[in-house]
Amino acid sequence: MKKFTVIPTLVAIVAMVFLSACSSAFQVKVNPNPPAVAANNGTASASTASSSPAQVQQVAQSQPVQAQATTVPGQPAVPSNSLLDAYQATLESVYAQVDPSVVSIHVVTQAAASSPVTPFGGRNRGSQSGTQVSEALGSGFVWDAQGDIVTNNHVVDGATSIDVTFSDGKNYTATTVGTDVYSDLAVIKVNAPASELHPVSVADVTQVKVGEVTIAIGNPYGLQNTMTVGVVSGLGRSLPAGSNLNTTGPTYSIPDIIQTDAAINPGNSGGVLLDDQGRVLGVTAAIESASSANAGIGFVIPSTIVNNVIPDLIKSGSHQHPYLGMSGVSLNVDINKVMNLDPQQQGALVETVNSGDPANKAGLQASNNAVTINGGSMNVGGDVVIAADGTPITSMDDLISFLETNTKVGQTITLTILRNGKQMSVDVTLGTRPAQPVAFFDPTGANQNSTLLSLPVSTNVPVLQ
């Protein structure tokens, strides 16, 4: 019996030593710089070679996990970067999800023969009638399963023909359903099969914060379905709308513009800016650039305005914007000084009030005291709007944003104002913004802004709302 008991014991001891040696060698090969051995009361713990069978088994089971992640024959070990992998997978997923919804829009317009400039880097072709036939490219995206496609108004303004190309290369003729110059939005329609129509989902941009990832998909320079990535770099910007800045007359603004550093170039107009879930934050419309090429500052019409305007364009072809009939500027320390206001006072100074319009009927008072500020002349002394229906108004942009997103035509709102330094309330019933005779984009190119990508708004320019 003894020899039968001794042999298994020797075999067990040899097996333990062998496993221990293999385990140690395996550790050295996979991780030449293993973590320090745990100490117990200042004394190092026993080595693996003298560990119990259970400990040996535990080490042997745990080590292959390390080897699986790091060993590549003939190449240095590269650790896995789970954050980078997740980021890349997110971008790939968003593109696969939304790419079928984004379309390329080819537009033909007729313009004066003297204009050599076309929108989005298009080209002019002369005709026997003495007009120029201009071709232009823009972007758009599928809104619903009925074939309605959203784009910018300046993409299709004045179009005599519109063609839409989907990501799979299929092409359809489109017709204009509705346009709104004041939001620079438009809806066109294609008669495409249901298999081609992949409506987008829309995000709640009221929750968006600076620093969030943004993904733009469009057709820059005609490069179909191009994706670029950036972040939300600013919120609460404004863009001019409803007026060519080289003409005289009223100027309106699109409020709550999202700013992004995702690359946006000529041809991106009408495309989408997305969040990391593939939901539409807004419609890419313009960039700030001296060269009409991306400089890292892009402007996007927010989904709040898109959701307000697009259903009306589909239903009736137009959208009515609430109207006060006044122009104003934001207070600043210089204006506050000449008006004897607190240096930190914020609000929208009423500069002019149009006769017969809602502001005039409500009794709002315009500025009539001419002063010189920083070498320029302006009128001060009028009412200062500091709240609307209890919502604080810190600037003219705030007032425009409140009217655009919180009110309807015919609605009565209460404005809290400062008049001669004293606070009071004024009730105003909003009217309908009158038709604007000058388009947001001049298709003849006469304004030398062929891509609609460099239209800064000066804070000193009165904005009519």
In a few lines, what is going on in this structure?
Helices cover 22% and strands 34% of the residues.
Structure description:
The structure is a single chain. By secondary structure, the protein is an alpha+beta fold. It folds into 4 domains: 2-65, no CATH class; 100-196, Trypsin-like serine proteases (Thrombin, subunit H); 205-316, Thrombin, subunit H, CATH 2.40.10; 322-432, Roll (Pdz3 Domain), CATH 2.30.42.10. The chain contains 8 helices and 26 strands. Strands 17, 18, 21, 22, 23, 24 and 26 form a 7-stranded antiparallel β-sheet that branches. Strands 3-5-6-9-8-7 form a 6-stranded antiparallel β-barrel. It has a 6-stranded antiparallel β-barrel with strand order 10-11-12-15-14-13. Strand 13 and strand 14 form a beta hairpin. Helix 1 packs parallel to helix 2 (53-70). The longest helix has 29 residues, at 2-30. Mean pLDDT is 77; it is low at 1-70, 114-125, 243-247 and 437-465.
Number of strands: 26
By CATH reckoning, the class of the largest domain would read Mainly Beta
Q: Which oligomeric state applies? A: single chain
CATH-defined architecture of the largest domain:
Beta Barrel
How far from one another are the termini?
Answer: 106 Å
Main beta sheet: 7 strands, antiparallel
Q: What would the principal axes of the Cα set say about the shape?
A: globular
Strand content of the residues, in percent? 25-35%
**C-alpha Rg (nearest Å):** 33 Å
Structural class: alpha+beta
Q: Determine the fraction of residues in helical runs and give it as a percent range.
A: 10-25%
| CATH overall fold name of the largest domain | Thrombin, subunit H
